[in-house]
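Predict the 3D structure for this chain.
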Amino acid sequence: MQQSLSIRNAGWLKRPGLKVRLLSSALGCGLLALQPAASAQDGPITDTDTLTQSIQVEADATVNIVVDAPLATDEDGQPAILGRSWLGGVIINSLDVLTSGVMSDGIFAQSFADEGEILIVSGDVETTGIGSRGIVASNEGAFPGSLTQIFSGNVTTAGADAIGIHATAKAGAITLESLSVTTSGDGATGIQAHAESGDVQLLSNDVTTSGLNAVGIQAEASDFVIVDSLDVATSGDGAHGIVAEAGMSAYVRSQSVKTEGEQAHGIVASSTGQIAYVESQTLTTQGDGSIGILARSNGSVAVRSGSVTTQGEAIAGGDGGDLPPGDGGDLPPGDGGGDPFPPSKPVGALPATPGGGAMGIVAISDGADVFVESGFVSTTASGATGIHASAQTDTIVISDEIQTSGESAIGLLARSRFGDVSVSSGAVSTQGDFSTGISLLSESGNVLVLSEALSTEGFDSAGIRVTANKNVIVDSQLIETTGDSSSGIQVLTQTGEVDINSGDITTQGEDSDAISVIGLGGGSDVRISSGAITTIGDGSDGIFVNTFGDVSIAADTIATSGESAAGIYADAGGDLSVQVNDVTTDGALSAGISLQSNNGGVTVNAGRITTTGDSSAGIEAVAFNGDIDINVTEIDVSGDRYLPGDGGGELPVDPNPGGGPASTMINGNVIGIAASSFNSDISVTAGKVTASGLNTNGINVFATGGRADVTAGTVDVDGVGGVIGLRARGDLGAHVIVDSIRAVSTLENTAPGETDPFSEAISVGAVTGQARVQANSVRTEGSKMTGVEVIAVNASILAEIGEVVVIGEGGGGGIRTLNGADDGEGGRTDIRANSILTDGDYITGVRAISLKNFNDIRVGQIQTDGRQSVGVFSASQSGATIEVGEIVTTGDVSDGIQAINRTGLNGGEGPLMRDPSEIITGDGEPDETPGGGEDGVSVATGASASSEPLPGTVPDGDISITAGSVSTSGDSSRGIAAHANGDVTIVSGSVSTTGERTSYFSTTDYQFGLSVSGLFEFEGPASHGIDARSDYGSISIESQSVSTLGVGAHGIRAETGEGDISVQAGDISVSGQDADGLHLVSQTGDVTATVEGHVRAEQGAGVRIASAGTIELTIANGGWVDSADGAFAVVIEPGLVPDDPIIPEDPVSILAAQSLGGTATPVTSGASLTVDAGGVLQGRIQLTDGDDTLQIAGRFLASGTSLFGGGDDTLINTGSVFVIDGATAFDGLERFENQGLFSLTDGDAGDSLDLSDITFIGGEGSVLAFDVLSDGAGGVLADDITFGLVQGTTEVEIMAEAGLTLDASVDLITFTRPVADDAFRIRSESADAGFMQWTLRQSADRLTLAATPDVEVFEIIQAGGVATDLWHEGAQVIRQQAALSRSTQSGSGDGLSGWIEAASTDRNGAEMTLSTQHAGSTVSQALSRDLSASSISAGLTWRSGAAHFGAALGYVDGRARFDGTGNEMEMEAFSLSGYGGWSTERYFANLIGKLDTGTLELNVISANERSEMDVTTFGLNGELGARFQSGETYVEPTVSMSWVSASLGEAAFSTGAFELEDGDSLKAEIGARVGHAFTTGAWTVRPTAAAYRVEELAGENTARYASGASQLALQDEPAGSYTRLELGAAFETGAGLVLSISGEAFDGDQSGGALRLGGRMQF
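Done. Predicted structure below.
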């Protein structure tokens, strides 16, 4: 049964439809769209249209009220429309309703039926009274089937507590659709729906409230709440925009919400069951403590938001939440905003504002997951977190942009108690203290965060802060923080792994790491990949990691600029790997990369690293039980040791761990690369390392229980105090490879706290295995610097160095090694270097000490410039091999090479500058002890000098030295010095010393074989070239050249006890007083010396040898030994044999021998001195009293008195012995066996030698030479010898002065005993003296030299024959042209013709004998002469009928050569000729007249003489002949006669002058010519042949030779007769050109031939 009421007003009813938009549900379901039964009025309600009486219908049955007219009432306490049913439902359909009374609702519907339904469809509703609600629906039905539905137009209320729409239901669902709701009174909620046991579905177009606590929409249900809203605006305090609370699920979908009052949240959704869901497009809150979206559920929470903006401040005294705001700690993060729903608060009550902050979005699930998807969130007040999401299980947040500007206003806070946290964030910006950008916590699960851009500007405002129990993944593109304690990314995991992929990060506050990760669990592996990182602030690391797991870091660029701000710091329990392109730190205690693995390896791959702060390393790495592998392109570090209070403030009590080991170590060094491993290896590869500052290090690595390998391109260290360029230590071996390294240190401003003044460019050390270094260029500058240091405890050493430069003083040297390995192949020291340069006092080029093993040193070039700066120092027990190309030292007490070998070395040995006759041990020079230096590595054995083994038990330790060039210029600076127990071998090129002797200071002395400390002054040694000593072995020396200048500075000094000495010497020059070229001393050993160069001593002996053993001295081919005037060239002395031999078992005798001295006896075994072919011994010699032998196969230039001593001494000469001064004597020589040259020639006659006490034996090849000179007074002066017993035959050689005459005669030898007639004879090679020939005349007691004419005298008289022969050559040309003209057509015609002819002739004359008278005897000489001539002539001929005449010019160059002597006569002449003739067909006659003028040069090569004269030659030639012709063949018999006369002058020579008479020639010739002619083409060929007999009828030319008082008459002989054969041909053209060629051959007294070429032209 239904009771209905219908009120209509037909005039105004309109139905435009309800203005409501249906919002789709996020869960996929939709609300029912109901069609309204009433419509809003288009215009205002008027009195004429409006009903004024309230309508009230109450019934048991269903109430149905339809009001089709507007209704307006003003009664208090009465609704305008009231419908109530006790057993049924209520339906109200109305138009507009207006009430103005107090407590007067617009529409009120109520049903008490168990399944009652309420349906309200209304137009506009307006109330103005207090408590006057717009629409009220109350369904008291108890059954779930009951339904409450409201569809309204515009609802407006103005009174306090005047709710716009208020719907309640005890059971069943509430459905509400509203066009708009506006309330203005306090407590006047816009829409309020409450279903005690059912659902609420609410669809709202527009809600506006302005009163206090006037919520826009409030929906509560035991099951589901669904709110769809377009626009909600509230302006009152406590007036939330939308509140949805459900027992099961709450859904809110909103397009726009705006609140303006305090604690007026935008949207609040809560659920105790399944889900709280919020979907919002635009939301703004302006009041203090007003949250934008607040969602909480015991189930899931989902929030999808477009834009959320809160502008209110925090409310004091609000709920503090779970965590205190701004906790300030690293992790767990302080969120600032706290938990908005304290767990103790009832769900059914409206939640209080969390912490009073106006947060943007708060989503909390107390039993399930949370999902937030947000577009834009902006908050401005303290405590106003942008997004707060907290769940029991998973939390997911997706955010586009978040902005907060208040204190404790986190951008995004997400937590999970048992699940994972996942965040995807666009841009996040916070501007207040304690305002982290993204703060995430998963108490039991994983965390994933994806962030695009993030910036914070407050204290303790990290960019991303994560705490997780398990794994963490962070992917960030851009992070910027500006406050202190505000890291870019902070992560803490209890047990999980961490993966961070970061773009650029910038932090600008103190204690603000860009990335900070802590892993507390054993499996907490960390992987980081980052872009550009920048931190500005103390304690702000670029990347900080502390975990028990593995770490992997890949970064692009990192820059920090505060103290204790490392670029990368990582402390891992497992393996640690870093890859970074560029790291820059600018602050004290700020390492570029600082890494430590407690149970794993460390790997670094870096591009460029730069640090500029005190105690800030470039790379630090520590590994336990894992290898270290570092690969870096470039490192640049600078800074001093950090001192608290020194400009940078005090260090914190607990330094930020981000600085790493160096940062936490006050007063630590600045190091480019520092690495330490334990039970593992180290490998470092660096392109370029630059370090500067106090005690700075370039690379410093220690591998304890492992090996260290370092490879570097360039290392440059520039610091104050002790600096290290590159140091590597490895217990199992160390290997360093570096291209270029430079270490510079200054000590002028030593800083407080400096503990290590010593510096090395490279230092390598190993306990076992091998210590190896390879470097191309090493340079150090500063005091106490070492270029390369290598230390081995029980390992081998290998140093391979290109160039070393050390500038400074007091360091360990260019290369320094210390090896404690036991004897054996595996423990030796090998040094290889190209060049070493040191500039400073106490700087050794190479210093190698092997306590028990062997040194092998090979260096190209060494130069030291400083006092006590030895080129190479080697101390070893097992011996040494040293090879050096060039060594130059310039300071005092600076040997070029010094090598010692002995047992008992202690590692403190330095170069010994004491005389080698003293005991050799460490001298304590001011050099750092390698074993106790700054590196703390010591291999000293503790042995002292007193523990040295006794003589006889000392093991052999050999020393071998090879040196190309050694030069020293300081005092007490030897070239090469060696002292060994075993053998010493030295091979050297050039050795030069220029210093004197000086003193030096030492802190150690050795007395009675014991070491005594103190300050002692010692006299240094003389600057010997080579100084070698062997106590128990032998010495072998090969030297190319040695020179010394100092007093007592021997060229080569060698001393042995029992061992042999062998020396092969090249050039040696010594200038100092008492300085010998060779100084060789052995007690009992054999001494063998070979000189291959020039050995000269200016004030000492060239060679001095002393030994009781065999002595052999050889001057080899190219060798030369001499000394200055008066000094001995060679001194042989006996050896000094100790009278009391040392007993090996008796230490007393050892000390006595070493320190107290003893007596000795001279012992000699004789000596053998040999001068090989090509060798020279110059000066005088001193031999022993034994039987000595001097063998000369080369040259002995004897001067002064040579002392042959006692014994039977023999001189055997197969070479040359020259007596070079008049004071020469051979004292003590018994026998002279001469098979070579014994010469007194020195260019100065008059030397006299007395050999009357010597047996002179002339063997095969024995020659005796004398000087013969003019005495200046017309006489002759010669050397002379007095002989006693003479045996054999000796040739006499004369060295005569040029210009001696035939008058020369002088005595050469005086005999004291009879001499055989053939004992002396003139040497054939010496008999020829140019124009003279020497002869010997022997008497009983004399041997006299005399002169006779030689063949050269007879050659000169043939000058006339040479001149006439050349005249005949020119005349023959004209005769040939006349014959040619007779046989050719062009030549027989009248007119003018011209011709030219060239000829070349060679004639060989027959031998002839010429004689003259000299000294009453006839002297005859045989000679022969050859002549070669070249000529050219040209002439013009005029023919007219049978007559012709002409003229010619010619040139001839002739050379005559004498066969026996090779002497020559050369003449050049020009000629002028005239000729004519008459010829018929049968007969012809010709006449020639020719004049030659020229110069004749006489080159007497055999006499080294030359002269010339002018010559004029004139002659005539006449020829008669006949011609018999048959056809083209003819025969011409001829006869010819020539007369020639040559006018000659005087030829002057040094030995005399020749007066030459005119040279005449009368030559007759008879013979015949045969010719023929034939034509071929255009040419007529005319071959000819001829034969003639020629006879010289004159030629007995005469001359006179005047030499001294001797006058010789000389006469030449005619040339004789010969046959001349001729063969030729002419080639004629019709144009008058004739070409001719002919050849001649001579046979008889003249032989040879000629060739002629000519041409003729008829004009």
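The mean pLDDT is 82.
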